[in-house]
Amino acid sequence: MTATQLAPVERPAYRDPNVLRWLGAYTASTTGDMVYHLALSWAAVQSGTPAQAGIVLALSAVMRALLMLFGGVVADRFGPRRVVISSDAVRCVVVLGVAALLALSTPGLWALAAIALVFGAVDALFMPAVGALPPRIAPSAQLGRVQGMRGLSYRISVLVGAPLGGLAVASGGPAAAFGAAGLLFAFSLPLLLALRLSPLPSDGEPREKTTALRDLTDGLRYLRGHRVLGPLVVVIALSDLGFVGPLNVGLALLSDARGWGAAGIGWILAGFGTGAGAASLLLTVRGRIPRAGRVLSWTIALGAVSIGALAYVPKLPVTVAVAVTVGLLAGLSGALCGALTQTECDPAYLGRVTSVTTFFSLGIAPLSFPLVGAAVGAWGPAPVFTACAAVCALGGIYGLSVKALRRAELPRS
Q1: Do 13-138+157-193 and 212-406 show the same overall fold?
Q2: In 133-260, which ranges are continuous DSSP H helix?
Q3: Which of 190, 246, 267, 365 is the most exposed place for a label (fewest CB within 10 A)?
Q4: What CATH number has the domain spanning 212-406?
Q5: pLDDT tens across 346-388, in order?
Q6: pLDDT tens digits for 191-201?
């Protein structure tokens, strides 16, 4: 036999029990997150005015944004598995405690605000750690598949989480919904504890004692000097800044202006979800997309054209078809961004690098929501969608202009 014949065949990620355990834990945790947010929204609306409820819901996002970068430091210092397990354990205890509190009494908004702050802080630790975990549970050549599976998991959580939360609220009020969320977080814990982690090159090396601020500065310096990751973060920031406003705020205003109502928004979002799910399925099956850097830049640029087109299509069925295209392109580019980040990054810095990309996606980009809403109200959907699409396209064009990113590849099996 030749050496090639003796070499073990690498198992696809979707057949790896270790990856499937991680996927089950991630699905349960993400679904629990969806149920929790619905329960918090309902409880806040019942306990105060709409403005007060909005403040309660915003507290979690503000806390998450403020602590996100240091969450990456924590993930790199203590290991992503330990941080993810601790985060889900805290969320489980806190949410089940809220369920018991609501079942026995009627707490004021201050209690809900406190829960929102705690949840935001825990999310700031959880999200970078989740992004840093896949290279420890799957070979580098399988990280594209892992990102595709993660995308499918998220779509399932969106489809299941909202109806499950609504059913729980309808049957037992917010207490039942918080209880359901807590049980989902609890379900993730044994799966996470059963994970087998592969050692990385940086494991076991002596670590100099430094402050968290110095670790963060060191991570930002590493990111700025990296030939692929530095430009990739710019691409992610620009594409998210142009993407999230139209998809989160603009669609509701567009549907209202066209007279499609809430049903119209539902159909458009269903189209987007179908496209994004198809992209995740494609990456799960194929595992590797050749010329990943070039493909992600082109999909961002073409996706930007589709985003702009949403405001110029007068018929709902055609708009839904365009939304499918947006979801397909955005889903593929997002998964490729994640896979390239995990394969290009030194494992010692992966938590911090992930925290920076997440900070732009979930911390900075949502700040455009009020601006997009005000602009649509003043000038209508078409110019605003066009301007946002231009910002998004700029990210793709910039990616194509950077040689190292344009030539970046995912590992072969």
Answers
A1: yes
A2: 134-137, 143-193, 212-225, 229-245, 251-258
A3: 190
A4: 1.20.1250.20
A5: 988 999 999 999 998 888 888 888 888 888 888 988 999 999 9
A6: 999 998 877 66
